[in-house]
Structures are given as C-alpha cells and as structure tokens.
Specification:
Length: 280
C-alpha cells in the first residue's frame, strides 16, 4: 500500500548552520513542493504495484521508496538538495518479490518474532543477541526442511521472511559478543539461498529485483557488519542452477579412436564414369 512505501525517519539530526559552506536555506514552500511531488509519485507507483500481483501470488515489499528530500532536510544524507521526486526515481528504488499466496500465509513472521524478543527482553549487555541467534537458527532449519521435502516455494518464503527480519533489525550483530556465531548464520543463510535460487532460475522466474536486494544486503553484511564485528562475514549466494556432470570419455578409448584409420572412399566404377560422359 501507499503507507508501506513511505519511510519515516525517527532520528532527527541537527540541521546545518547558516555559517556552513554547504548551507541551503529551505523554505516552507520548498518543503511543501517536495512533499507534493513525493506523494504524487508514490501514489502512481502504488497504482502500478496493485496490478503486478496475479492470481495465487502475493507481492512482498523488500525495500520501499524513500523521500530523499526529507532525509536530506533532516541531516541524514549529505550533499546538495535532492531533486523533486519522480515516478521513475521511486520505481528504481523499489525492491519486491512475488511469492505463492498460500505458502506465504503459512510462513512464520520472523520480523514480528524479533519485535517480541525486543519487547520481552529484560537482560542487559549482549544477551539479547543469543535469543536472536536461536530464532534465526530455527528459520534456517525450517528452510532446510522445506528443501528436503522439495517444497521450494515454501523454502523461498521462509528465506525472504527471515532475511528481511535480519536486514531490518541489526541488533544481532551490532550488540553481540559472539561474532563467530553471527558469521556462521550468515554463511549458512547464503548456502540456502543458493539452493533456492537455483530452483527459481530453472523455473524461469524473474529474480532481478530479489537479486538486487540480496546484493545490497551482502554489501551491508560483508562490509559494514564485518567491520563492526572485526570478523569477516561471508554472504555468498548464487542464482545459477546446478550443472549435471557428464561422463567423460575414457582416455584410452579416445586415443584408440584417433589412431583408427578412416574408411577408404570407394572408387567409382568405370561404367559409372562412362555413363556420366554419355549423358553429358
């Protein structure tokens, strides 16, 4: 829906001072114009999205469109004032995936479970990360079970729900004293994604937006999260289907075939040559 496309910014940074070299005065009229442009583009994008999902499918939003002007005005991003929002610009930011409606209904909501851990956690220090690791471990187990039973759509739904919960809530690596455990979960998650994506490729599914989202997630975890933890996290996944090995020809047989003389060409009979000359 329109509301889920918009991102609210809870953290308000100190606005630039008029003495700063990059200071640009923002008037109420400018804010209103940018807000109107964003709302208009967002409404059009929402109309497009409503037409994408077909029967038996549900559209899962992986990454919504952000009001770049609001983020800049709040001091969350640097640089010159962003241009007015456009439909094309918001569309390029959007990331989503189409999943089976019935399978998605049966998929655990890992984001909601993460929030419940936050709400019920009474301990201090890094103890909450262990609860999150246990939750993520259950999600990995559910994906493995689905793959073993050839329920590939269910496995895909589980991985989308689990990965999105891990992307949207970074406390599991920002506040832990077990970086190796965090790295292990990410490594196993990448392996499962490779298995699921290989099946999706063989089914000729459009994975462009899903892969773009996973690629940005890999950058976040392998660079930012790894630097924070001091341990290299590897989120390696591949969308290539497995290659079926072919039986190699025996070296001995190949050598014998090369030495085998080719059959001599049978010469034409004299009668055939004479007949040909008579015909001409």
């Amino acid at each position: 829906s329109l509301q889920c496309l918009k991102r609210k910014h809870d953290v308000m940074a100190t606005p630039p001072s008029p003495t700063d070299g990059d200071y640009q005065e923002v008037t109420a009229e400018m804010r209103a114009a940018h807000a109107q442009a964003f709302d208009t583009a967002c409404s059009k994008l929402d109309e497009e999205i409503q037409k994408i999902a077909c029967d038996g499918k549900v559209l899962i939003l992986l990454k919504g469109a952000r009001n770049e002007f609001d983020a800049w005005d709040d001091g969350m991003i640097d640089g010159p004032m962003p241009a007015m929002a456009t439909l094309e610009g918001l569309r390029s930011e959007l990331r989503y995936v189409l999943l089976g409606k019935d399978e998605w209904k049966e998929t655990p909501n890992y984001a909601a479970q993460v929030h419940r851990i936050f709400d019920s956690h009474l301990g201090g220090g890094t103890s909450m990360s262990y609860k999150l690791f246990a939750l993520f471990g259950k999600g990995l187990g559910s994906a493995r079970t689905a793959l073993r039973s050839a329920s590939h759509e269910r496995a895909l739904c589980v991985l989308v729900s689990l990965t999105k919960a891990m992307v949207d809530n970074d406390d599991w690596y920002c506040d832990t004293d077990a970086p190796e455990q965090a790295a292990k979960i990410v490594r196993e998650l990448g392996t499962l994604w490779s298995s699921v994506l290989a099946t999706a490729v063989s089914e000729s599914r459009n994975l462009e937006l899903l892969l773009a989202w996973l690629t940005s997630t890999r950058k976040q975890w392998e660079v930012d999260a790894s630097d924070h933890l001091g341990v290299k996290m590897t989120f390696a996944f591949s969308a290539k289907p497995p290659i079926t090995p072919t039986k190699a020809k025996s070296t001995k047989r190949a050598a014998e075939a090369e030495l085998q003389p080719s059959p001599a060409k049978k010469p034409k009979s004299p009668m055939a040559s004479t007949a040909a000359s008579v015909d001409t």
